[in-house]
Amino acid sequence: MKHQWFRVGSVLLVAGAVPRTMAASLYNLPRGVTPISHEIYGLNLMAFWIMCAIAVVVFGAITWSMIFHRRSRHPKPATFQENTVLEVVWTVIPFIILLVMAVPAARVLLHAEDVHHSEMTVEVTGYQWLWRYTYPRWHINIYSRLADSSLRIAPLDSGLSPYSVPHYLHSVTQPLVLPVGEKVRLLITSRDVIHSWWVPDLGVQMDANPGLVNSIWVRILKPGTYRGQCNQICGWGHAYMPIVVVAKPKTQFMAWVREWQARHGGAAGHAASPAPQGS
Ligand SMILES: [Cu+2]
Prior knowledge:
The protein is α+β, with helices and mostly antiparallel strands and 279 residues long. It is built from 6 helices and 10 strands; from the N terminus they run ααααβββαβββββββα.
């Protein structure tokens, strides 16, 4: 018995010693870098605290019953069968809790899909197994495939370790480049099967359905590189179509646009490039 308490004590000590930030990154959602990702984080935190309160009440009631109503104390059990007041209370309270969670969740959903007043648009199209990004304003057209460094290692007989390359299966040939601080509308669709564009740091997870365009927006608040992947099981190459978003300050973004146009022969760009073949 003594040993058991010692073991429990040491586990709690170790848990207490884990730095808070590390524990948060291990067990929590990323806080993200967009207003919507912050709102989603807040929703998750609210649900977490409600859950904690429910756990305290439920386990508290169980513990209280075990201690104060154990058989040795009350050898004769009570004989009541039901209690209407209690039953109404434990039906109404969960209903109120659900309402408290549903109202802000619905508000965030509506906010995430409100693409009014967007400052620019990017079309995102899923293919087996890559993403295409089109910037209609500048006629920029990017095919974003799995980077060669990962591709070389992917076959089982390659003999190479996934740890030998940075960001194995999370790096691409060309990232989606976006300006920091602008409201960017993403129009998400697919050319073949259902894919899903998922970047946790941006708080975006949107299905890419053939024949349908879903819209969502991001306003990235911090320059950086943000990684995600297709999270819809879309076929054998599902793991080979990662997403990389590079957020640059507005001036650097415009420099990237000009550089892209210069490299691809002016504003006409490759907007009319043929669709890639699935392979
Ligand atoms: Cu996919």
